């Protein structure tokens, strides 16, 4: 066999093996995916949930996300990490802090800021660690990571706790849904999801966005179903929930919970497995995120993911050698880490094989017709079996898994478009490979093009920056001792109102570490989950809170002088109240405006609280 024939045989064999491996993998992940049974839901009672939202220049979406999370889950503590934003994000967060006392803002400044999502999440972990009381059961403290445009399904904490009943489970990843209207998809009322004639409402997302949703609810969900059996479930950057004790364990063994890979979520899952704990995947609930309507933004996002996967190749040998990771799990992780490199190889091998076949078709025998009649027609069903069917099959599967929210015709069209979509994403892999060759490791942030949750891109940001000289609300420092407190000066010269800010400085260096706000107004503003009842009362939440804060009753006021009796007024009819509590629904338009703040004279003094035992290099301020 001469050199040309040998090279041709090697090319065809490589292309054939890649096709067979891909087809077999699709078959392997499809079987457990279609046979998946729902788990047993749990209860969030007794668990302390902390949601972390890292954001960088997210003025268009962070306001709606904060309102959604704190209205739907009033019992959680929300930590928003402002990673050096230069837009109106700090002002929007300060404005939201006046309305929601559960909001904690962790602000990072340059040069420490903008060092990647992992560094921002480590900052939140340190802040949560400092805020937890000394006797907290950190095994029942759950830290959830959500994107700045996320909408979490209202029963998600309960479903997640059903997996956390197993003490070996340290982290749970929920299913991700992608849509143009996150509020509509995450709405709790069935009327928003199902038409009046009980026919599922048709999805109105764009083709590209719906292909992204197909990817997450189809191939990615199927991969995670297989990983549940092999013990190698991967974590995602949106909708991952980890025990605080597991994060502490990773920090003890590896320095910090999150590390420097651009795929920091998958990297965290690997570290969970290396510490001997288990990861789980939950598709009984979901977190919704806004899809990317433009190809350029999509390729930018996927290039970051591909580069992060390539960076995680350094964990392959520790995973294989670890006695804490099962052999099937190590093999599955090895395959996943090999995927970006196989895509690079396939993007060269497959076009080269097609070019060779076209060359033989046009230069040998009596032309194309003779070559075709000689048996070359068999390449067509072979190419359809290995190169088209594994992608097209996800269209009908997507229709079934989405409850029939897409028509049969659209499902078939999505399956056919998925072929082009899969090959389009190979461009992102090459983009990532070039970045690695050039030594680029910066975080390529996904750009925002509009207000998440509105379904439109011409609306203003769901929040308002405070005016100059207006009071802002800061995160409350945890109790500790040995720190210096200082109340801020007046807003401006000639203005008797103080800023209300209480700064907290490190004793040794005098460096500002925390800033504390004045206490919240006596009556909290209404939320979508807890509207005020007549008389200013607030109904009980629909879900019992994991922890309660005792309220100290104010001393009785001195009796006032008797006044002339007023004529009796006609009693107002009380508004009907659902004894089970209000149902969570889409955010009311009233939440897009800021309630009037109480006068400065009525504002309570700022609480004086000491700083954490282990101060970090972070600041909490507007």
From TrEMBL:
Gene3D superfamilies: Spore Coat Polysaccharide Biosynthesis Protein SpsA, Chain A. The keyword Translocase does not apply. The keyword Membrane applies. Residues 526-536, 543-555 have a biased composition (Low complexity). It is found in: Membrane. Residues 444-467, 489-622 are annotated as: Disordered. Pfam families: Glyco_tranf_2_3. It is a multi-pass membrane protein. Keywords: Glycosyltransferase, Membrane, Transferase, Transmembrane, Transmembrane helix. InterPro entries: Glycosyltr_2/OpgH_subfam, Nucleotide-diphossugar_trans. Residues 556-579, 596-613 have a biased composition (Pro residues). The chain crosses the membrane at residues 6-28, 344-362, 374-393, 413-434. PANTHER family: CELLULOSE SYNTHASE CATALYTIC SUBUNIT A [UDP-FORMING]. This is Glycosyltransferase family 2 protein. It comes from Klenkia sesuvii.
């Amino acid at each position: 066999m001469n050199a040309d024939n040998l090279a041709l045989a090697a090319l065809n064999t490589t292309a054939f093996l890649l096709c067979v491996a891909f087809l077999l993998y699709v078959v392997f992940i499809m079987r457990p995916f279609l046979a998946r049974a729902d788990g047993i839901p749990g209860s969030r009672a007794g668990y302390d949930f902390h949601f972390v939202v890292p954001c960088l220049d997210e003025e268009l979406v962070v306001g709606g996300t904060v309102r959604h999370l704190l209205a739907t889950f009033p019992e959680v503590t929300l930590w928003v990490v402002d990673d050096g934003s230069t837009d109106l994000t700090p002002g929007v967060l300060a404005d939201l802090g006046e309305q929601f006392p559960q909001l904690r803002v962790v602000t990072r400044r340059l040069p420490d800021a903008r060092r990647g999502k992992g560094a921002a999440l480590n900052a939140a972990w340190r802040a949560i660690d400092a805020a937890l009381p000394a006797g907290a059961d950190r095994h029942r403290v759950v830290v959830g990571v959500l994107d700045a445009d996320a909408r979490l399904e209202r029963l998600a904490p309960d479903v997640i706790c059903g997996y956390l009943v197993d003490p070996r489970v340290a982290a749970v990843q929920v299913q991700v849904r992608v849509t143009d209207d996150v509020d509509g998809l995450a709405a709790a009322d069935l009327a928003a999801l199902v038409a009046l004639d009980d026919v599922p409402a048709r999805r109105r997302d764009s083709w590209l966005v719906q292909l992204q949703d197909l990817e997450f609810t189809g191939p990615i969900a199927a991969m995670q179903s297989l990983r549940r059996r092999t013990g190698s479930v991967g974590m995602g950057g949106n909708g991952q929930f980890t025990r605080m004790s597991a994060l502490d364990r990773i920090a003890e063994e590896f320095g910090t919970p999150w590390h420097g890979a651009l795929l920091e979520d998958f990297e965290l899952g690997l570290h969970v497995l290396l510490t001997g704990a288990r990861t789980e995947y939950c598709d009984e609930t979901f977190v919704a995120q806004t899809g990317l309507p433009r190809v350029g933004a999509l390729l930018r996002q996927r290039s970051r993911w591909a580069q992060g996967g390539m960076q995680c190749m350094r964990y392959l040998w520790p995973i294989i050698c670890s006695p804490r990771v099962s052999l099937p799990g190590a093999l599955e992780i090895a395959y996943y880490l090999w995927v970006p490199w196989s895509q690079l190889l396939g993007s060269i091998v497959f076009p080269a094989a097609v070019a060779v076949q076209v060359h033989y078709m046009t230069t040998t025998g009596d032309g194309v017709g003779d070559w075709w009649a000689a048996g070359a027609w068999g390449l067509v069903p072979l190419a359809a079996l290995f190169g088209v069917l594994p992608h097209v099959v996800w269209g009908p599967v997507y229709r079934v898994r989405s409850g029939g929210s897409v028509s049969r015709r659209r499902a078939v069209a999505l399956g056919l478009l998925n072929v082009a979509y899969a090959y389009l994403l190979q461009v992102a892999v090459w983009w990532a490979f070039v970045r690695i060759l050039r030594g680029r490791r910066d975080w390529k942030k996904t750009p925002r093009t509009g207000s998440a949750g509105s379904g439109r891109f011409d609306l203003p940001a769901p929040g308002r920056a405070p005016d100059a000289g207006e009071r802002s609300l800061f995160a409350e420092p945890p109790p500790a001792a040995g720190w210096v407190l200082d109340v801020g000066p007046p807003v401006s010269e000639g203005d008797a109102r103080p800023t209300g800010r209480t700064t907290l400085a490190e004793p040794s260096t005098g460096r500002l570490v925390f800033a504390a706000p004045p206490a919240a107004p006596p009556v909290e503003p209404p939320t979508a989950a807890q509207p005020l009842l007549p008389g200013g009362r607030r109904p009980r939440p629909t879900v019992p809170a994991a922890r309660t804060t005792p309220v100290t009753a104010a001393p009785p006021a001195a009796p006032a002088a008797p006044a002339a009796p007023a004529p009796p007024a006609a009693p107002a009819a009380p508004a009907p109240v659902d004894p089970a509590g209000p149902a969570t629904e889409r955010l009311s338009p009233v939440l897009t405006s800021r309630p009037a703040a109480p006068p400065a004279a009525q504002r309570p003094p700022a609480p004086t609280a000491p700083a954490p035992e282990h101060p970090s290099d972070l600041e909490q301020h507007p």
